[in-house]
Design a protein that fits this description.
This protein is an alpha/beta fold and 224 residues long. The protein has one domain. It has 8 helices and 7 strands, in the order αβαβαβααβαβαββα. The strands form 2 sheets. The protein has a 4-stranded parallel beta sheet with strand order 2-1-3-4, sandwiched between helices. It has a 3-stranded antiparallel beta sheet with strand order 5-6-7, with no helix packed on it. β6 and β7 form a beta hairpin. The chain is elongated, with a radius of gyration of 22 Å. Bound molecules: zinc ion. The site of zinc ion has 8 residues, from loops. It comes from Acrasis kona. InterPro entries: Mut7-C_RNAse_dom. Keywords: Coiled coil. This is Pomgnt2.
Length: 224
């Protein structure tokens, strides 16, 4: 299979599932390892421990993100929205039967205001189990080219620094001197250095990151 078709295949696989590599996620502080891991794999995952439940819901709705949580408080709140929606839908059915146009309109307006929320309640305990749970549920695959393509700190995309001088105020002099590969976050300006072709330490770091991604990502065993 050539690269183009392989890419198409990945996207096709992801589109039928609510999630996949191309969806956007938001994790809360009840699942601490998830966002860093997903970002490392290049997946868009918002997370900030200062976010309140209401704000997480607001972001999920406005940015079309899937909520990942283990918080029973947030889970209860999300379920209450679902219950409210189900109740309104039942009322709408009844109203349609009676043909009360004005009432139908009122319920429809209320329903329109409840934007759909997607969320996933993580049942597993422990960092690695939770990651496996999430990547398995959403079929999130490890795509080697996307490793470290996002800032683990803020979720922004990183881009290659062409001219080392541009970041000389951001890193130690010795780091600047000893390295030739730098990337910078488009959002928070944080600079990362080194790659697989770097020194022994960098090689080791990349290898362990790749091993971790292989081990904790989703692998479709049915297509092999
Ligand atoms: Zn950043």
């Amino acid at each position: 299979m050539d690269a183009e078709h392989h890419e198409e295949d990945i996207n096709k696989d992801n589109s039928h599932e609510q999630g996949g590599n191309t969806a956007k996620y938001i994790a809360d502080s009840s699942v601490p390892g998830i966002s860093k891991f997903l970002r490392m794999m290049g997946i868009d995952c918002a997370c900030d421990c200062s976010y309140t439940d209401a704000y997480i819901i607001f972001i999920a709705r406005s940015e079309d993100r899937i909520i990942i949580t283990r918080s029973s408080k947030l889970h209860a709140r999300l379920q209450s929205y679902e219950n409210k929606k189900a109740k309104l839908e039942r009322q709408l059915e009844k109203a349609k039967n009676t043909g009360d146009e004005e009432y139908i309109e009122i319920i429809q307006d209320e329903l329109d205001e409840i934007k759909p929320l997607k969320y996933y309640w993580v049942e597993s305990l422990g960092r690695e189990n939770q990651i496996l749970d999430v990547t398995g549920h959403f079929k999130i695959r490890y795509i080697p080219e996307l490793l470290f393509s996002r800032c683990v700190k803020c979720n922004g995309k990183v881009r290659r620094v062409v001219n080392k001088n541009d970041i000389k105020d951001k890193v130690y002099e010795l780091t600047l001197e000893k390295n030739d590969y730098f990337v910078q976050c488009e959002k928070c300006d944080n600079v990362y250095y080194g790659n697989e072709q770097g020194n022994a330490f960098q090689k080791k770091l990349w290898k362990s990151a790749r091993d971790l991604c292989n081990r904790l990502s989703y692998e479709d065993t049915t297509s092999h």
